[in-house]
Amino acid sequence: MSLSTKYQVDPKIPAVLPFEKMYSIQVGDRLFRLSGASVSFDSPSYFTSFFGRKENENKVLTVDRSSAVFDKICSHLQGYCIRADNEYELMHLYADATYFNLQKLLKQLTEDFYYCNVGGLSFRFPQDLVAGEGNSPNYFTVAYQTTFQSPYFRGELKDVIRPPPQSPIVIKRSAKLFTDLLNALSTGRICVDNENHRRQLLAECRYYRFLALEQKLIPHKIQTNPFTHCEEIVIALADVKKDCLSITCAGPAVYKRPFVDAKARVLVLQIESEEASLLIHTELSFVNLLFTGATARRLYTLLSPLDGDLYESTVLEDGSVQEKLRMFVSLDECSFTLNGHETKKNWYMDFFAGGSENTQSLNGDVIDVKLLRSQWTVNSKDQGRLWFNGVLADGVLDVANFNRRRGFL
């Protein structure tokens, strides 16, 4: 992963002290000799304030701080680009840069890279890597704003002789998963080992607020329908954002993933739930969809206020809430698997009154087909009524056929 950034240090040196004059600074156990040009490079500062006074220009400034940390600060003053080796050195440099009021160095330290410790491993990555729309503001922008609110700038530590110790950003999350996220952000390639790995990565995206990367990781499929010549996106019901869904009377509903998609595509909604049924009304000769529970509530939230009159929420005697959503449905172009077998077109008509002899063993005015998995497009027609147009579905008629699908551990 590239560690280059756009940050540039201003090379101009203000004429504060005589450039050719040498100044002595004793830091810890070491004596540093710096030219007036170096001392003036990042000014006004603690040093220019001291040596700028006539009575101090030939004195040795003694500072009770770490000479190892000041070694890098000295390189900065001499015009070199410096970089902290890890999150702890960053905090040491920041504390002393604050103490010495070195604004150029402070800017570089806080606006160049993000430093953190995740799961016991040190990370350093360019802030630009997570600065795009949807990925910012994020965990690190907030953490840095909190961590680097120096009390010196607020005048709260006037009588303190040295900066207080500050801890770096330490995150008790998976270092491996964080590495995977950084690789995805830097390369643009999403590498997912399996569905469990995907769920873990999605959880990490939400924790760090990498919302654009989250949208790329969400399971989906984009393809062009050769018959309509329209691009379609298949995405699960739970992952659809209402604000990004558009339903008009002119055609099927379209969807544009937030922060990721430049254009909207025809939405193919995938539903995997035990709360979905296809109801075949034998005497009335029509079919409709019934969703219950959380699936009904999710669909109602997504589609309301459209077809709100088809939604029912009833409080039962035990205090529980029973929710139902009925939808009009078209299966004309749906590839349907029933009880593990592919059906013919308009197969459901065999259940209507006077239908096929093969269906006579199923009694009742309503045949309930439990939909294990299904995909639908959503259309608005018939005075604004919503219709679910079947694309792909897999259902069972009874417990035995459901059990046949279980499989063994």
Automatic annotation (TrEMBL):
Official protein name in the record: BTB domain-containing protein
InterPro entries: SKP1/BTB/POZ_sf
Gene source species: Ogataea parapolymorpha (strain ATCC 26012 / BCRC 20466 / JCM 22074 / NRRL Y-7560 / DL-1)
Highest taxon listed in the record's lineage: Eukaryota
PANTHER family on file: BTB/POZ DOMAIN-CONTAINING PROTEIN YLR108C, BTB_POZ DOMAIN-CONTAINING PROTEIN YLR108C
